[in-house]
Amino acid sequence: MLTAHGFDVVEAVGTGPELERALRTHRPDVSVVDVRMPPTLTDEGLQVSLAVRRDIPGLPILVLSQHVEQLYARELLADGAGAIGYLLKDRVFNADQFIDAVRRVAGGGTAMDPEVIAKLVAGNASDPLSALTPREREVLGLMAEGCSNAAIASRLHFSEGAVGKHTANIFAKLGIVASDDTNRRVLAVLAYLGTP
């Protein structure tokens, strides 16, 4: 499917150790990784991805999982660097949705499965976002899915300028200031998902 949509596949691997070698050797524009890989068939793909991203911050990785695992999603988002995604494997069957997620992650954005986001938000005991209006929460929810301002505007049927104003309000209300060291959208999404 990836090659059919114009991607060059530099390597396909079957085990965690092979994945680690491939990620470190190729430093690909984006990697699609299964959470469960041999030899352990537990969370080897995720653990290798996290370890390599600690050494190569921002290395774009899209993780696929059979089920929503809140801990996995939180771990992936914890570094705040972006270029990360977490999709349920069912999403791969929708080629447009899957390829869009791959492109977003490759471009430095996030691609979070809506089901993952729903579980993360439902799991939050407190609401650090109480200052946000319902519309700002809606915009932030779409940001958490990895949508661009143009995509948010299209889905909510208003202008990109309006999305920009809502986004600026979200940053201000969450106390997120512009910095060369952080991505404000990723920090806002982390606040939305309740990740410390």
From TrEMBL:
<keyword id="KW-0804">Transcription</keyword>
<dbReference type="Pfam" id="PF00196">
    <property type="entry name" value="GerE"/>
</dbReference>
<dbReference type="InterPro" id="IPR001789">
    <property type="entry name" value="Sig_transdc_resp-reg_receiver"/>
</dbReference>
<dbReference type="InterPro" id="IPR011006">
    <property type="entry name" value="CheY-like_superfamily"/>
</dbReference>
<keyword id="KW-0597">Phosphoprotein</keyword>
<dbReference type="Pfam" id="PF00072">
    <property type="entry name" value="Response_reg"/>
</dbReference>
<keyword id="KW-0805">Transcription regulation</keyword>
<dbReference type="InterPro" id="IPR000792">
    <property type="entry name" value="Tscrpt_reg_LuxR_C"/>
</dbReference>
<feature type="domain" description="HTH luxR-type">
    <location>
        <begin position="125"/>
        <end position="195"/>
    </location>
</feature>
<protein>
    <submittedName>
        <fullName>Two-component system response regulator</fullName>
    </submittedName>
</protein>
<dbReference type="InterPro" id="IPR016032">
    <property type="entry name" value="Sig_transdc_resp-reg_C-effctor"/>
</dbReference>
<dbReference type="GO" id="GO:0003677">
    <property type="term" value="F:DNA binding"/>
</dbReference>
<dbReference type="InterPro" id="IPR058245">
    <property type="entry name" value="NreC/VraR/RcsB-like_REC"/>
</dbReference>
<dbReference type="GO" id="GO:0006355">
    <property type="term" value="P:regulation of DNA-templated transcription"/>
</dbReference>
<dbReference type="InterPro" id="IPR039420">
    <property type="entry name" value="WalR-like"/>
</dbReference>
<feature type="modified residue" description="4-aspartylphosphate">
    <location>
        <position position="34"/>
    </location>
</feature>
<dbReference type="GO" id="GO:0000160">
    <property type="term" value="P:phosphorelay signal transduction system"/>
</dbReference>
<feature type="domain" description="Response regulatory">
    <location>
        <begin position="1"/>
        <end position="104"/>
    </location>
</feature>
<keyword id="KW-0238">DNA-binding</keyword>
